[in-house]
Amino acid sequence: MRNQQRWLLLLLRHHSLSQPHISRHVINQSQFQVNPSLRSITSSTFQSRASHMIPYQPLTIRKFSTCELPVEHKDSDQISLLTHIFSKQNRTNDEINLDLKSNNVTITYDLVIKALRSFNTAPDEARRFFNWVSENDSERLSSKVYNYMLGILGSNGFVEEFWGMVEIMKSKGYGVSRVTFNRAIERFEKDNLSGDVKKLKELYGCSELADVNSSDEVCSRVCKLIRGNVWGDDVEKELRELNVEFSSELISMVLEKLECEANKGLIFFRWIEESGLFKHDERTFNAMVRVLGREESSEKFWKLVDEMRTAGFEMERETYIRVLDNFVKRKMIKDAVDLYEFAMVGINKPSSQDCTFLLKKIVVSKELDLYLFSKVLRVFTESGNSLTGANLDAILKSLTSVDRFGECNKILKAMEDAGFTPSHIQHSKIAFNLGSGGKDKESNEFMNYIESSGTTPKSKTWTSLIEGYCEAGDLAKASDAFEMMVEKEGPSHAGYALELLVSLHCRKRRAIHAFKLVEKMVNEKELCVWHTTYKLLVGKLLAQRGFEEALKVLHLMRSQDYPPFLDPFIKYLSKTGSADDALAFTAAVTVKKFPSTSVFLNLFEAYFKAGRRSEAQDFLAICPRYIRNHADVLNLFCSMKPQKATATIPAAA
Predict the structure, then answer these.
(1) Where are the PPR repeats (predicted)?
(2) CB-based burial, 401-413: b 16+ in 10 Å, e otherwise
(3) Helices and strands in the chain: count of H runs, count of E runs
(4) Are 479 and 502 within 8 A, CB to CB?
(5) What are 431-473's pLDDT values in tens digits?
(6) 25-40 residue pLDDT tens
(7) CA–CA separation, 614 vs 637, rounded Å?
(8) What is the DSSP letter of 96?
(9) What is the 8-class DSSP label of residue 14?
(10) How many C-beta atoms surround the C-beta of residue 472 within 10 A?
(11) What pTM was estimated for this model as a whole?
């Protein structure tokens, strides 16, 4: 009983006075499988111990980030990349490293295992990959990795290399696993390699099918023992009687197998060092941290993380990625930010893409936590990094995805405090999105923010805001913004914005209001209206019964040295216009004393083509004399007279 109580308290052991996170690591004893008779004892002991814990205060050194997950590719993507990279022959180490870096591939222990599995029928790629890992990342080469490579060599008939690797494994104390033995023996027997079959069986001694001392086998026995029993003297005794050497690799394997029973894994982790069987190193600490990082309760995790750093060990990149993934999946964003802060003061710092990843996750959370957002920015910049436009673009895209773009002003303020200033192009994008999203209040705040930051909003920013309002169909807001733009920026760059506004007026069948706006801007502000705007306005006025206003547009065009826009008038008059309308039109396009003869001819031809001969005659009657007597006009009317039928009289018989 005392022994069971002691192992439970191993979970709370040392560092209680030196670790500021200990109040975060309260253990729920109900999670452990303990003898019912001990529950009252362990509970009272635990409460007594917990009452002496030091309240949590942030570490002064803890300044504790991925584009979906720290921009690590999915496993399948990474395997495809590795297959492509290592399928090429005669490549230098530098070339391979450059390829891996440019494709954002991080070599982890799990990835090594998965890659070798995928190389099962591609021994050349497997050898190149294994040799590269051996030279550049040899700590990833465990007994399990060697066995995978050995199995590939054996099953593909590379006998000489197979035995060479067996010797290397012997020198490292690694055994051959049952799976590897079966794969190799099957190929040897198929190829009638009786000598190699005999040699392989002798390797096991008396033809045993498995090496009882292989790491895999020992790991399985240790895990079976721990899982199947309540922790106590009997379990400790049986573990000692296994008579195995507990290596860093073996302990990591055991902890990985116990990841679904994290509390038992933590008991084993504490016991193995307390018993003197092993002194924990960086690898075993990281293995235990990865296991605890799967739990929803992070108290034990943070205690162990601080303990690991106090012991002088670093968090591996692989550990960071796994734990961050778990935190994000469980919506434990605060813990994810703390993990980022922790990792940023270590040797294996997260990348700049990890920062973006974390910021995106914060802004799409149920509620925007500006404290956490600012904390990530502070940690990132205090480590010597600078925020870029790409960071802002990614964050704004995430805000849009959850329909919370209106909160961009808070984001901009936080990034400004971190030393970032958006570009004018980004200002324009933000203005458009606010306008098109109907965020009137936020739009005003945004424009005021730009002014308060010492930067006058550019005409492009105003135009983008107006374009956004027009996209949303908000004529009143677009008009107000246009008036403000002209007032603050002047009319010199307002041509496109005016065209947007005219187009919106016309879509709402308010072409006459659009004309009044254009007339006001030309006469009062001397705004140079675009030619395309005039053309648009003329066509819409004629379609919306604004013939008189359309004629006035011709006068405005002439005042700004634009040629008259005739086609829509001729089309309109030929179908619905009266003779008086036609005469008013010819007067409007008169350049000097007399209008052009070609204008009259075009009108007459259009009348005839539309079948309106009588209207053409009426118009001709009120035309100036020089038009009525013009040869081309007379010829046109004569050619259009109806032909009288000529009677044919048959000849007399």
Answers:
(1) 281-315, 458-492
(2) eeebbbebbbbbe
(3) 36, 0
(4) no
(5) 999 999 888 898 999 988 888 876 767 789 999 999 999 999 9
(6) 333 333 334 333 333 3
(7) 11
(8) H
(9) S
(10) 17
(11) 0.67
